[in-house]
Amino acid sequence: MAYDLKIVGGDIVDGTGAARRRGDVGIKDGKVVALGEAPGPADRVIDAGGQVVAPGFVDIHTHYDAQVLWDPMLTISPWHGVTTVVVGNCGFGIAPTRPEHRGLILRTLERVEAMSLAALEAGIGADWPFVTFPEYMDAVEARPLGINVAVMLGHTPLRLSVMGEAATERAARTDEIATMKRLAAEAMDAGAVGFATSVSKVHVGYSGRPVPSRLAGFDEMLELADAVGRSGHGIIQYNVGRDPRWEEYEALHAKSGRPLVWTALLAGSLGPNSHRPQLARAGEQIARGLPIYPQGACRPIQFEFDFHSPVVFDTWASFAAAREASDDAARRKVYGDAAFRARVKRQADGRGPDDEVFMGKELEGDTRRASFKGFVIAEAKDPSLKERKLVDVAKERGIHLVDLMLDLAIEDLDLRMRASLLNFVEDEVREIIQDPNVIIGLGDGGAHLSQLCDACYSTHLLGHWVREDGALSLEQAVHRLTGATAALFGLNDRGRLAVGLPADVVVFDPATVGASALERVNDLPAGADRLIAHPRGIQAVIVNGQVLPPPGEIPRNPAGRLLRQRAAG
After folding, report:
1. Closest of 443, 384, 413 to residue 308, by C-alpha
2. Mapping DSSP to helix (H, G, I), strand (E, B) and coil, where does residue 290 land?
3. Does the pLDDT at position 422 exceed 90?
4. Could you say which DSSP state residue 180 is in?
5. DSSP class of residue 243?
6. Residue range 522-551, pLDDT digits in tens
7. What is the DSSP letter of 549?
8. From CA 195, how far away is CA 235, in angstroms rounded?
């Protein structure tokens, strides 16, 4: 047989967890047609000697819902070997959206996922090519996609489309729930791979309001779960923030009959070693045959933030006035207010409200917990402050570190701080990622672009946790990045190398694979900035049989697909 593409001499790791084996891969018409032995000529040959040949990575936690409309390559995910992404996570998306609600949904994404409003407006444009969810799917499918995209229906746009601004203020009426359920069924019929929602208290939308999904009663959740179940396919993704809701997981699964993945199981979320009882409880549910899985991360959760939108304070009661400020001028006024500063100091010192804080008061005896003491000045007008701890500069100047922070913010709202929030105690992270019940994800591609970059989690996992630490074998890590995630989301023709399946492939050097340090660039629409990480050790990324060009270049004939999911049979 003559092949379009042949990959020769590599170590094949097929995504099932099976041991690697030396061999060739033959690809024709976008599919794998030979595996192990591939005799015959090829139009193009990739020499994979000393390299690993694996399925393309399947990233189940991204927020490219808007970005796909102006960047069909979905950078930077394919740079790091990702060939399939799932969007709509945490209940955030842009469909269905009525024309009169477009500004509200974009301002919600600006606040909760720290997306540049200017970039969103410039990237999508004024004339949105959709209103309904099925129309959004058609619009994505019409794009020249560089990689594959699967879409979950987001609870926040669904609720907003039915209830308008009331979605951020109250529970839904019976008739509104019925309308949402009908639209959810419509979305599943259009090929959605699931339904996603959030009750996390860190999810704060425009004008400091809770995102719409947080106002939903559990009766509403159950009706939407029923719509997913009646479709005969799909998954429920449930972001609960820091506190697991074990009984709710079981109730949503019982109502839908579908798998559920909850976000997130992170090191330090409820104090030191708090992951252990969560792992045990999750394992007990799975042992009872319940397909309920925690989602975890393999990288530290670190945020760089500015004071236009100081997202790390979203759950601080003392920061309410700043969240509700209408513009930057009002925000500066709040930062200078003596009463506001006094409230923030009380909370920072552990003498005031401690509502769901990620930072602030340290837990007794827990010096690892993120706090003001760990804040680093990432960027400031005064270059001498760069990469210095806030607490050290405050001591030098003889002022409270809250006063220093807010003084610097008033001077320059572009001031950037870096805070380590969670998942930075390596011994604890190791235990989480070694647990086979944990779904590794939380790359967050497309979100928090100026604050973090974890879309490189795949190369980080292979470089740090496989090669450097040895926490996972190469076969285990590839399986967790491919077959495990694809199977959970019902993407049954992805995540494995097998004859007859689409040829989504990544070729990488196990001795060098990894991610670079973060770099800030201004390449988004309207010149907005983002953090990126460059890959190391990735030789080739192949999507449906087409080799992608180097990072930053666009393929001549993009081969990515919208992956619509339908009920079996």
Report:
1. 413
2. coil
3. no
4. H
5. S
6. 999 999 999 999 999 999 999 999 999 999
7. P
8. 6
